[in-house]
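ingest -> validate -> predict -> emit
validate: passed (alphabet ok, no gaps, 390 aa)
predict: started
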Amino acid sequence: MVTKRHRSRNYPSPEYCILDMVNAHLKMKQRRTWTINLALRTANQMFKSSNPFDSQDLVEGDIMAVCCYFGFFFMSGYKYRQSRAVLKRLDELNVLKIGIKDEMEQFPSLITNVKDLKRKKELENLITVYDEEIQFLDQNYDIVKCNIWVRQVSEIQNKCRAMVAEKIVQRFDVVKVPRITTINDLAVDMIINLSLTCGTGFYSSKMHETVWKGRKLVLRDKETGEFFDDFSGNTDQKETVRQMLGLEEEQVVELSGDNSKYEIYFESSSRNKTLKAGSWFLYQIFPGTTLQCQRLLFKAAKTGELDTVQKLVAFFNADNSFIKSKEHGSGNTALHMACRHGHFDIVLYLLENGADIDMSNNHHNTPFSLATESLQKRSVSFLLNGERTR
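emit:
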């Protein structure tokens, strides 16, 4: 006998549920103040909101205000998805109607076959149903505005991708210290992730700072805004930071933060370092190489995450070497992994976007070899036919 389950009355309020959702996202790995602020600005543009909300407001803002703000975005996001669904359905209906009309044109002007007469009647009924659905969508949604909105969002997304691509090249972000505080408190208040700078960061100083061997420095060109360092993996830099400042590598010096050509940021040895109000704090937000993104690509190709593969390849479409990058240990490319594990949709997408079908791994195996070994018949057949048509 199934007993009736009693519902608890101790449910949290709706605003705390929303707040938990927000906090869950903020606590996710690799979240940074720059990333969060970019997401908030992009959402403001997508949903036509002029509210100057930033990452610090999420920490210090009133609970109800934060909940109302995100409630607005959740509802706007739902409305946007609804607009996209309407446009997608309209396209589907128009394609279906074209297919039906093409089929109806195949019938002779005088139909004597009962089967053909029945089929023609079915097609006419389908067209009526599709026309009614199209009419319903036209009456209940502003199709013109939906099209404009989706197009605008696509442009905003492209601008966002361009900003991220530019920041990947820069690698660092600089924030102004709002008040006297420690690095640790600043990281908490502004949701700054210091994992790429080994748990600490860099600060500007108008005083003389002692620079010894091993103490890291970051320079920023005052004219171009370009960053220079010796640790992030930037391969385009020809000189070390010390050479750029005219210092010997082993020399211990008192270095002034006031330089005519560069902004100088000094590594802090402790998160308890006190920062002055109005000074600048620098931290790393992207690695100097694409190795981390390559690992994500390999993992996605191996586990069949097509959406992740598409986003990574689209983002690095200007870098032809990214899709051909090899895993360090095995020498496998993403195409090797997709072929071995039978993810045909990923195989197809990678080949359409420049993956090399003839590239060998460290054991001299091509993607075709791995697909054959793993008995991935669909991939093998496709790769064979591709070879014949080349």
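The CA atoms of residues 293 and 312 lie 7 Å apart.
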